[in-house]
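so my prof wants the structure for this chain in the tokens format not the other one, which i didnt know existed until like an hour ago. anyway here's the sequence
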Amino acid sequence: MRSMFTSILLALALVMGAASPVIAQHNHALEADANFDDFLNTIDALPNAEVLERFPDAEARLLEVATDAEATVFRRWRATSMLSNFNSPEVRQALITLTEAADDDLRGMALLVLGAGYLEGGDAEVLAAIDARLSDEDASVRADAVRALAYGHGPQITERLERIAAGDDARQAKIAARALAKKSQNPQ
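here's what i got, hopefully its the right format
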């Protein structure tokens, strides 16, 4: 029995040793030979200074993937989430357009990035895009629209959140009430 166990361990060691060059070739997205697709598909990668130095056109590439109807939903969702690191008219417009995407996860992510990055200034077009999703057919998108509103400040945001908190949709009401409580603790 022991010799069989030893043989199995030896075989595993040989197989793992032979496989190690293959494993070594699949480097983390921040290593020298990584490409943009590896970066986009790496779940824990974020556009930091090192990545932006390697990919100075990251914003344009992310916009291309996020708006590519032929790309997988995962790739579009990842690209959309990474757009939160960029603030430009092109990103803003793409996010507004993505709030009407066919996929509910993509609409939700677009709402969150839009609210976090563009609602602060009271942008009427951004607010209208978020408001439109408060009555989305998908409950998770409606909830993300309320979360997106929570990033904003001012009387028009507070009024909307109060109306939602008093509304019939329990999930939206809970999110809105939490946002209002947080705003009352940290007024800006």
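also thought this was worth mentioning. The chain has two domains: 28-86, 104-188.
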